[in-house]
Specification:
This protein has 16 helices and twelve strands. It is an alpha/beta fold. It has two domains: 208 residues, no CATH class; 116 residues, no CATH class. Strands 5-4-1-2-3-8-7-6-9-12 form a ten-stranded mixed beta sheet, with helices on both faces. Strands 10-11 form a two-stranded antiparallel ribbon. Strand 10 and strand 11 form a beta hairpin. Helix 1 packs antiparallel against helix 8 and helix 3 runs antiparallel to helix 9. The two termini are 35 Å apart.
């Protein structure tokens, strides 16, 4: 059977409304997605147009997955060989979890379309507003924001959502941050929400990659000199290592691999005048947890719970659920640095570490279970084991049997723990 293709049938920028739209065709079905980076924003500049192309190319992943398309036809968009290879990698690695969980082999992505031998540098607009910081309301982006503020650097937040919708779990800590906000919207084709009814395939997509590209557009349109991400070291660590040497990483578009490759593409487009990097790339989640513990102003407003980010507003929780893997992980990262009482207050009396029924989830997080690392944005087992070891030493956790068992079975020595508070070496570049 011929492989399915995802054809990029065209994208356009409507300067009057500040909207960017992109169209795709997969298995004879047409889809259109629409983005904006603020009303009345001038999108005429060649740099903004060049950046919008990557939003369009990345976002097609939501529609390509519906039929596990393996051929990407870029239509009229001409790419260099390096850009085409990067796009193929983005789809292959970004859809690796999708393929794995749908019992498919890794998708053998190929890219068709016109080629250019070399990308001519695109001139940049005036960029004098410092960094644009994508902000999701979690401890990682909060730590980045507070570090930038301490250094006295100019910055604004970047927040993206559906038109007319917002997440309290993002807006509340953003208000605490006190920085101006550049707002963007992303509107998927409505048909993609009927995937199950249509019998299409469903699963995880590299959403951070799409939002990263949209943040680049927003930064250029609003005069920012770069995008400062908050992706830490362990985002590069896979969830699953396959027998054939391939790996599956839920956080691939937060990984060093993606960051370095996208940096190179942007540099070949714009030269050295624009930056895309992560502030936390060489930091552990344990280091982030320690830094966040000092950011007391956010403790009553942040909520990194999966159920706070449900697409249906009616189903969103207004407090921590206290049972999902993300709740467990955040609790574990903060437990060495905050008191039991403080964490009980943060979790509204529903702290995961005080719920023995969650022992299997914690065992997975610290690497005591044969189950794979959860397909969530959580740290690696070494970071989690270090956190459990430190938390178990606290006097206010002396009676916590889960922590004592994790510490005795998976505890790390002081030198291993200390190394997690130092700059960590590259994960990707050594492979």
């Amino acid at each position: 059977m011929e492989p399915f293709s995802c054809t990029f049938t065209g994208f356009e920028i409507t300067h009057e409304t500040g909207q960017i739209s992109g169209s795709y065709c997969v298995a004879g079905i047409s889809f259109t997605e629409v983005w904006s980076v603020g009303e009345g924003v001038d999108l005429h500049h060649p740099a903004t147009v060049a950046a919008a192309k990557w939003v369009y190319l990345f976002a097609g992943v939501s529609y390509a997955k519906s039929h596990a398309a393996t051929v990407l036809d870029t239509g009229e968009i001409a790419l260099t060989d390096k850009e085409a290879a990067f796009l193929a990698t983005f789809y292959r690695e970004g859809l690796a979890e999708f393929a794995y969980r749908n019992n498919l082999a890794m998708l053998p992505i190929s890219v068709r379309g016109p080629r250019v031998e070399k990308r001519e540098l695109v001139p940049l607009p005036a960029l004098n507003r410092g960094m644009l910081i994508p902000f999701g309301g979690g401890i990682d982006s909060i730590v980045t924001v507070e570090a930038v503020k301490r250094e006295g650097q100019s910055a604004r937040l970047f927040i993206c959502g559906r038109p007319g919708d917002s997440f309290e779990a993002i807006e509340a800590p953003a208000a605490v941050a006190g920085l101006d906000i550049v707002r963007a919207t992303r509107q998927l084709d409505p048909m993609i929400f009927h995937t199950a009814a249509n019998g299409w395939l469903n699963g995880h997509v590299p959403i951070t990659g799409v939002l990263s590209a949209l943040a680049v557009v927003a930064a250029l349109a609003h005069g920012h000199s770069g995008v400062l991400m908050s992706n830490e070291h362990s985002a590069s660590v896979p969830n699953v290592e396959l027998e054939n040497g391939e790996s599956i990483n839920h956080q691939w578009s937060k990984s060093e691999h993606f960051e370095v490759a996208f940096q190179e593409i942007l540099a070949e487009t714009f030269g050295s005048g624009f930056s895309f990097r992560s502030f936390l790339r060489d930091k552990s989640e344990l280091w982030v947890g320690e830094q966040f513990a000092h950011a007391v102003a956010y403790h009553s407003s942040f909520r990194s719970c999966n159920k706070a980010f449900r697409q249906d507003p009616a189903g969103r929780l207004t407090k921590w659920c206290g049972t999902c893997d993300k709740c467990c992980f955040i609790d574990l990262m903060l437990a060495p640095f905050l008191s039991k009482a403080a964490l009980s207050a943060i979790f509204d009396g529903n702290e995961p570490l005080e719920n023995n029924d969650l022992a299997p989830q914690f065992a997975t997080l610290v690497g005591l279970s044969p189950t794979t690392k959860p397909f969530e944005c959580v740290g690696d087992p070494t970071e989690c084991a270090a956190a459990a070891t430190l938390a178990a030493r606290r006097s206010d956790r002396a009676t916590n049997t889960m922590l004592s068992e994790m510490s005795s079975q998976r505890g790390l020595d002081d030198s291993e723990i200390a190394s997690l508070f130092l700059p960590l070496p590259s994960v990707w570049l050594k492979n």
